[in-house]
Design brief:
By secondary structure, this protein is α+β, with helices and mostly antiparallel strands. Helix content is 49%, strand content 21%. The chain contains 8 helices and 8 strands; from the N terminus they run ααααβααββαββαβββ. Strand 7 and strand 8 form a beta hairpin.
Length: 261
């Protein structure tokens, strides 16, 4: 009977044990091929890590951009809260809500800018805005807009507060005292400037306005006009007056008044 023998059996002969080893023999992978396979595996892992890292960086950059956009009109802590919460974009959608609007400006500022040096006018404006900004963020108001020396602040939008009117009044009183100290300093520099604040409570249309490259969160409605008019009414009152308590209903459902705080 013929048996399967390895090639060594035909030439030199071999034992059954060596015959078994020969039957199980497999060609070895050259070391260079093993290194190439390992290198390819590491390359694939590195590509996956890079892709994951790019996705995380893109997500973080988007988060930073959202926070930066929100910080243009919200206190930093409020902006971060909105940006990190689920459905934060819905807070900026168009809607109607009762808000407290605070409008303030510097009396005599227009005439001041026409007679003083541009550098000094801008320096005064920066000091003024810095003082207001600190208080706006402390009371978690929403900065609607700057218009030269005119500043409009919202309360109860986009973040709702049960005590939004109380916050607005407390902020206005502190603004009166803080800017009062500034006006004394400006007076020592030869500038005769005053400060007025108007407050109004009513319903406003809220949402983002502008265009794709420049969107702003804003309030639209008669309540904003009432706050602005309350400032003009306060001009006949003692310097640094705060005009506008919730004392009278207008035909649009907004409230404004003329009390001095």
């Amino acid at each position: 009977m013929r048996t399967n023998r390895c090639w060594r059996c035909a030439t030199r002969g071999c034992s059954p044990k060596s015959t078994t080893r020969a039957a199980n023999w497999r060609p070895r992978t050259p070391p260079c091929a093993q290194q190439a396979d390992k290198l390819q595996e590491q390359t694939d892992q590195l590509r996956d890590w890079n892709q994951s890292l790019e996705e995380r960086v893109e997500t973080q950059l988007g988060e930073i951009e959202r926070i930066r956009r929100l910080e243009r009109f919200l206190a930093p802590q409020v902006a971060q809260l909105i940006a990190s919460s689920d459905g934060h974009e819905a807070l900026l959608d168009s809607h109607r809500r009762e808000v407290t609007v605070v409008f303030c400006d510097l009396r005599g500022f227009t005439a001041f800018t026409e007679t003083t040096e541009p550098e000094e006018a801008m320096n005064v404006l920066r000091e003024y805005h810095a003082a207001l900004g600190e208080l706006i963020f402390r009371y978690e108001g929403t900065l609607d807009r700057y218009a030269g020396d005119g500043v409009m602040i919202l309360f109860n939008a986009p973040i709702q507060f049960a005590d939004h009117t109380k916050r607005a009044v407390k902020m206005a009183v502190e603004m009166r005292d803080t800017i009062g100290e500034l006006t004394e300093k400006w007076r020592n520099r030869g500038h005769n400037l005053g400060f007025g604040i108007g407050i109004a409570l009513g319903y406003a249309t809220l949402g983002q306005i502008g265009f794709e490259q420049r969107l702003e969160y804003a309030a639209i409605g008669s309540v904003t006009n009432l706050a602005s008019r309350a400032v003009r009414r306060s001009q006949g009152q003692p310097d640094r007056g705060v005009a506008g308590a919730s004392t009278a209903w207008s035909s649009t459902g907004s409230r404004a008044g003329r009390s001095t705080i």
